């Protein structure tokens, strides 16, 4: 056949149409979940690709700025949302698919649960497996949140202490800047089971990744003192507050050299924020939320378990009918609930692929923009960034003027509320306790995020708010509890 074919996507399946054909010729009456306009391919191109690998559609045009703003028109337009890191975002096209899944369940739940749910979750797991370069789909479990994934791994470790596999006093290592909920989970599971907890301390601001590596080695030496063993290392890929990209690959290598039994990377901000490659990182366990930087609605995350046979030893903390069938199956059914967030991963990927270079392009775009905005704010306030640009991903810590008088975590929370309620700026504030001998230390840092919907005006609004506070002679003592 001569001529050129047009490829449309209907429910993510390719339709190969002859010149001048349209989808209506096929009498497709139902609405597609998502339809992507793509370019044309010649007969030679089609024949070549079909015999070797699936065709990756090329867009005739990538998403425009106006289309991006339309996708996020449901955001409060009066608020500068520069805190994507806390709660993420979801475009309108994915929300539409989410609602369609919810209605499909409500329309006929018996059919949905028995014939569609598990197939849909398997499709999401397969996509995640490919995105993170895992070996097997059974290494991937979909869970509701990274906090749940932490509970799964720590529960497994706690059982090892309780059953005598690990001796009392054996250690677990974690970063001092680990997420607060993770620290409490370690206390709830590990400390109560008799494990010793060693924290990795390093200074903030951070000047180089070598500071983190050196501090990590010291913590491992402490954990191994007097012949003790380190059973688990919990390492953040990107710390939350303060936000820093941790050299996880190097830390995992050190753990292997030092005989640490297992390594768990807590990457709540990982996928969509920085490069995630399981073969490169080499951890035993890795978790990341999909609702923070991967455009899924809240809440959905994955837990990777290296070598799928190990997943048989892990269990979901909510015990249901699938107990004992392996974590991927257990996690896919923990009783009647709304699983629609688990099912929109393909649609989120379709949204991502509307951008030039897909997820890699988005990450570079966000990284470059957030560093630029961070430098602009630091220059305006005469402060500094919390780490070098190469240790930032899509979030940056920016020092606030010392005259704001941030002297406690409570002050940082009150200032965050004040910025939101008075100025319409959503941004988290971090309190940094000053060290002895510091002259006019910067005790407050703002963690700014950049996602595709953000504009320069958002950061200028934040700058204007802080400038106004300085002009007014404001300090945190003016804020009531």
Automatic annotation (TrEMBL):
Signal peptide (from-to)? none
Q: Which residues form the Aminotransferase class V domain?
A: 93-307
Q: Which Gene3D superfamilies match?
A: Type I PLP-dependent aspartate aminotransferase-like (Major domain)
Q: Which UniProt keywords apply?
A: Pyridoxal phosphate
Lineage: superkingdom? Eukaryota
Q: Which InterPro entries match?
A: Aminotrans_V_dom, PyrdxlP-dep_Trfase, PyrdxlP-dep_Trfase_major
Q: Which residues form a coiled coil?
A: none
Q: What is this protein called?
A: Aminotransferase class V domain-containing protein
Species, as recorded: Rhamnella rubrinervis
């Amino acid at each position: 056949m001569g001529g050129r074919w047009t490829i449309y996507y209907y429910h993510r399946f390719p339709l190969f149409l002859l010149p001048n054909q349209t989808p209506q010729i096929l009498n497709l009456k139902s609405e597609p979940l998502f339809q992507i306009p793509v370019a044309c391919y010649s007969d030679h191109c089609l024949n070549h690709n079909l015999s070797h690998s699936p065709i990756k559609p090329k867009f005739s045009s990538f998403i425009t700025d106006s289309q991006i703003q339309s996708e996020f028109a449901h955001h409060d337009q009066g608020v500068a949302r520069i805190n994507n890191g806390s709660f993420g975002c979801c475009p309108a096209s994915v929300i539409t698919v989410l609602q369609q899944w919810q209605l499909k369940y409500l329309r006929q739940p018996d059919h949905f649960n028995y014939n569609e749910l598990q197939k849909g979750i398997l499709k999401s797991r397969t996509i995640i497996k490919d995105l993170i370069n895992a070996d097997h789909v059974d290494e991937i479990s979909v869970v509701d949140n990274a906090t749940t994934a932490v509970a799964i791994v720590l529960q497994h470790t706690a059982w090892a202490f309780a059953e005598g596999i690990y001796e009392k006093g054996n250690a677990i290592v974690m970063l001092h800047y680990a997420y607060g909920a993770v620290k409490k989970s370690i206390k709830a599971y590990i400390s109560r089971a008799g494990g010793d907890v060693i924290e990795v301390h390093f200074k903030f601001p951070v000047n180089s990744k070598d500071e983190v590596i050196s501090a990590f080695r010291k913590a491992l030496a402490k954990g191994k003192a007097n012949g003790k063993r380190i059973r688990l290392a919990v390492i953040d890929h990107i710390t939350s507050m303060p936000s820093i990209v941790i050299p996880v690959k190097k830390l995992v290598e050190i753990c292997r050299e030092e005989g640490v039994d297992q390594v768990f990377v807590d990457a709540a901000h990982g996928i969509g924020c920085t490069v995630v490659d399981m073969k490169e990182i080499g951890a035993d366990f890795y978790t990341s939320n999909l609702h923070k930087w991967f455009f899924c609605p809240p809440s959905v995350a994955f837990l990777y378990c290296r070598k799928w046979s190990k997943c048989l030893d892990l269990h979901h903390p909510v015990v249901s009918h699938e107990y004992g069938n392996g974590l991927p199956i257990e996690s896919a059914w923990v009783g009647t609930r709304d699983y629609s967030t688990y099912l929109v991963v393909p649609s989120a990927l379709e949204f991502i692929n509307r951008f030039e270079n897909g997820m890699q392009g988005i990450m570079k775009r966000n990284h470059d923009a957030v560093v630029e905005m961070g430098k602009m704010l630091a220059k305006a306030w005469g402060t500094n960034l919390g780490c070098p640009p190469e240790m930032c991903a899509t979030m940056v810590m920016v020092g606030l003027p010392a005259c704001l008088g941030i002297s406690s975590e409570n002050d940082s929370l009150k200032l965050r509320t004040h910025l939101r309620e008075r100025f319409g700026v959503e941004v988290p504030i971090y309190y940094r306790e000053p060290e002895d001998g510091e002259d006019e230390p910067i005790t407050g840092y703002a963690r700014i995020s950049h996602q595709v919907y953000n504009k320069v005006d958002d950061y200028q609004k934040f700058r204007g708010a802080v400038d106004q506070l300085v002009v007014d002679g404001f300090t945190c003592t003016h804020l009531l509890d």
